[in-house]
What we know:
The complex is a heterodimer. By secondary structure, chain A is of the alpha+beta class. Chain A has one domain: Cytochrome-c3 Hydrogenase, chain B, CATH 1.10.645.10. Chain A has helices spanning 53-57, 65-80, 86-112, 127-137, 145-160, 181-209, 237-268, 321-326, 379-388, 392-409, 421-451, 500-505, 516-521, 533-541; strands at residues 3-7, 17-24, 27-35, 218-219, 222-223, 282-284, 287-289, 297-299, 301-304, 313-315, 327-330, 341-342, 367-370, 467-476, 479-488, 491-498, 553-554, 561-563. A three-stranded antiparallel beta sheet of chain A has the order 1-2-3. In chain A, α4 (127-137) packs across α6 (181-209). The longest helix of chain A has 32 residues, at 237-268. Chain B is α/β, with parallel strands linked by helices. Chain B has one domain (5-172): HybD-like (Rossmann fold). Chain B has six helices and seven strands. Chain B has a five-stranded mixed beta sheet with strand order 3-1-4-6-5. Chain B has a two-stranded antiparallel ribbon with strand order 2-7. In chain B, α1 packs across α6 (140-152). The longest helix of chain B has 13 residues, at 140-152. The two termini of chain B are 29 Å apart.
Amino acid sequence: xxxxxxxxxxxxxxxxxxxxxxxxxxxxxxxxxxxxxxxxxxxxxxxxxxxxxxxxxxxxxxxxxxxxxxxxxxxxxxxxxxxxxxxxxxxxxxxxxxxxxxxxxxxxxxxxxxxxxxxxxxxxxxxxxxxxxxxxxxxxxxxxxxxxxxxxxxxxxxxxxxxxxxxxxxxxxxxxxxxxxxxxxxxxxxxxxxxxxxxxxxxxxxxxxxxxxxxxxxxxxxxxxxxxxxxxxxxxxxxxxxxxxxxxxxxxxxxxxxxxxxxxxxxxxxxxxxxxxxxxxxxxxxxxxxxxxxxxxxxxxxxxxxxxxxxxxxxxxxxxxxxxxxxxxxxxxxxxxxxxxxxxxxxxxxxxxxxxxxxxxxxxxxxxxxxxxxxxxxxxxxxxxxxxxxxxxxxxxxxxxxxxxxxxxxxxxxxxxxxxxxxxxxxxxxxxxxxxxxxxxxxxxxxxxxxxxxxxxxxxxxxxxxxxxxxxxxxxxxxxxxxxxxxxxxxxxxxxxxxxxxxxxxxxxxxxxxxxxxxxxxxxxxxxxxxxxxxxxxxxxxxxxxxxxxxxxxxxxxxxxxxxxx
Amino acid sequence: xxxxxxxxxxxxxxxxxxxxxxxxxxxxxxxxxxxxxxxxxxxxxxxxxxxxxxxxxxxxxxxxxxxxxxxxxxxxxxxxxxxxxxxxxxxxxxxxxxxxxxxxxxxxxxxxxxxxxxxxxxxxxxxxxxxxxxxxxxxxxxxxxxxxxxxxxxxxxxxxxxxxxxxxxxxxxxxxxxxxxxx
Lengths: 566, 183
């Protein structure tokens, strides 16, 4: 008999992702993805100075701060047809790279790995055996018997104290968990090490962006990082070399630990290389511009239809007409008035809330479409578009990953396994390695340009009277992000953000066609309806981020003091 | 490197009373000068990205909105135990984790702050709007007092600035249709 499963555990807090699945015969037959929070934050921007917009947009989301700041300044620069100095471009690129690396490492280790790693099982591991497995896969210095024994002891201490702390909400002992105890122990050890590399890459954002989260160094027209190699207060060689060594250290972790761990998980859960396929229209926007105007990029963009890599259509520049003209949002199944399809320049945000109605309106997220079709965005789109366009760093890291995972699985894996739940995790690790390579290249480009005597960081924006419109895009950690602005007499007239999780988590459209989350869940196994680990595996593989706009602490306990407001 | 004592404001400045934490730390920096061992910082709503900002602190005081059942505008001080009591919720979005997850993760990693307090206010209105309701704006001063007494109990005395600006924070700058609030 069919069962209806609603995963909405945090109903006490507004603003979360709710997933409903209809399960029949142990498989998902139909799915609904619902954003439970009204955003509409764009309305706050109307009437403001476009030069200030990025300060507000980077507060849309507390996790994706930098990406909304970058997309916003790019949108205003596009509306003004304003190129920025090379130094500014490279500094922005370095911040983008560091932010993306940070985001990917955290997503895998601290937010998703426990979908596949059974922490409690690690207590049964033999540290010596774990060391011999790990040493066979990588030269990482942290892979040794003493380190694994120490982690096991620490974990045992937690369990003996009757608490699992951070691991208390995991699905331990779930029938869908399959890793050997030793592999689980290796993963827990790397989970702890990842904390340190998260800190190091975050330092890069802090040094270049002046503060993290919420960087302070951006400006429409460039950046505010004064460059003077002889001045301690400005961006100088000492700070640049600090950035370089952090980038090098994190690169080693990505290549010797992160990529390897994902390959082990992929090889150990081969069935998850077939579940979770969903929408195979992919879109990625180009990023890491190499010139001031954004006509050449180090990361390519493009569109793939129906998984056909040979027909990839490139997106080539800031202001790209193919991208600009193809994007719409439909509200038939979203809690906004009417059933309209609108281009973001004309986008409206008029809420019309009703109850969750699987046949009618059921989400605060609009349904974005490209040329009328749902698109999957994110690292998988990024990697497939790069591979289709024969982008050398992408081809290199895809080949390395496939070779490694095939070796561990003792079977030849093809590129087709990428269209899956674990394919998205693999693509994220591959993208992280690509970006890590490119971060060092952009550091060299920046230092090379400064060495030529160029210290320019900002071109002054001029706002003509009348109306201008523009859009800025950024290939963010979760995929194609675009901000759309209409400026009238130097003030913001309209502003819309089409964010990656909207592309992926959006609801059905006017034709009843499902969004990427919804499509990817159909056919997923569900062993235990009351512990739908498998559904979470697929949803987590997209790295959803729709919930972070508000944040209230739930307190379960008594206060030590109540302070009266006078 | 971050200073050992950290006063952290959490909340989304674009979501009405959720801006309480950032508003309190902004007002504190405006009114007081802190020594080098104290970091006073508005961290927004960083979810799991809180971790590096909390690691290794000797004292962590978080200022945020709370859901405690008390009336809007009530300022309450909670200990680490009150904050960590109760099970973690299963995760749907990987960005659900907040303060509780960050603290538990650091405990497992051995870098948890030595002392943790939460100075919380119960919000009245959390919606897309860059301002505070009057009852929550009035809670800024009591919340600052609560933070200062936690510091004083540990021998930390920031010095009062001679001429604080008391101006509205950047996110509350006047635009047609929005009222500002003074700090």
